[in-house]
Amino acid sequence: MSDPLWMRLWRTLQQDGCGGLWLKSLDASGYRRLYLLRRPLVEPIRDCPTTLPVEVDWLTPEGVHDYLGFRPEATGHDVTRQLQQGDRCLLARHEGRIVGAMWGSSARTNTRSLLGHDLPLAAGEAYQFDAYTSPEVRGMGIAPALSVAWLRHLRDEGCTAAIRMTFPWNGAALRSHAKAGYRVAAVVRSLRLGNRRYLFPIRKFAP
Ligand SMILES: CC(C)(COP(=O)(O)OP(=O)(O)OC[C@H]1O[C@@H](n2cnc3c(N)ncnc32)[C@H](O)[C@@H]1OP(=O)(O)O)[C@@H](O)C(=O)NCCC(=O)NCCS
Q1: Counting atoms of ligand 1 from 1, which one is nearest the CA of 171?
Q2: Residue 49 beta carbon below 6 angstroms from any ligand 1 atom
Q3: Which architecture does CATH list for 36-204?
Q4: I need a labelling partner for 148 at 20 to 30 A (CA). Which of 47, 49, 56, 205 fits?
Q5: Dmax of the chain from CA atoms?
Q6: Pick from 33, 40, 35: which is nearest to 125 by CA?
Q7: Nearest CA-CA partner of 151 in 164, 167, 133
């Protein structure tokens, strides 16, 4: 059974402050505000060292079973389908065990679950999504190291920029992505009405 409402509100207030509680309440009512982060690949991509030794490699179809041990809420069917669609996932392993993962695609934004639509990707842009670090090793620089590995790979493939979406209250994600050079480039707002989500015009910030 889930925790009572007052307990969830209190936890949110402690974790995310008043601003976070307000934005999460708006989100629950259907109005969603997301930051679009952008990382131009012409800028130097500096190392982001981790404080836990990790090895970085790609998720392969053979590794899906292992991945599901790390993300039990995912299903083998969905992960396999994502790989078949061309999405790729970089893994960080500590002593062989997966402790971090980050997905990406050069073909689509995969924002359907967030926005009800896949946003168009500009020429040369790639999309990063679903960064996740095991709770017991957070704060050790694993997600920034995965971002750096991804960004170098994309640059070598000829991409010119990487973009990703983050909720404004997700301070850990904003800090982590900032270490790899991502900056807020736009605010994407949407409203859920019934089963559909409608996008407002995207507010871009000057580069
Ligand atoms: C966001 C996330 C991927 C960052 O991964 P990470 O490997 O911990 O990244 P970092 O080591 O750079 O830590 C980022 C920030 O997390 C916070 N942090 C530090 N220790 C933490 C801990 N034990 N638990 C939670 N957050 C912690 C700090 O604010 C840290 O920033 P700082 O180093 O400037 O103080 C991770 O917190 C996570 O998996 N969160 C849940 C899923 C999620 O929100 N994904 C992001 C989608 S955009």
Answers
A1: 29
A2: no
A3: 3-Layer(aba) Sandwich (3.40)
A4: 205
A5: 50
A6: 40
A7: 164
Atom 37 of ligand 1: nearest residue by CA position: 172
Is residue 170 lining ligand 1, measured as CB closer than 6 Å?
yes
Contact 66, 98 (CB under 8 A): yes
- Domain spans in the chain, listed from the N-terminal domain onward: 36-204
For residue 154, the Cα-to-chain-centroid distance in whole angstroms is: 16
Query: Which residue's CA lies nearest to atom 29 of ligand 1?
Result: 172
174 Cα to the center of ligand 1, angstroms? 9
Digit-coded pLDDT (tens) for 56-83: 999 999 999 999 999 999 998 999 999 9
Q: What pLDDT is stored for residue 153 in this prediction?
A: 98
CB 20 within 8 A of CB 170: no
Q: Measured between alpha carbons, how far is 119 from 112 in angstroms, rounded to an integer?
A: 8
Structure token digits, residue 204: 């871009």
Does ligand 1 have an atom closer than 6 angstroms to the CB of 173? yes
57 CA → ligand 1 middle, Å: 20
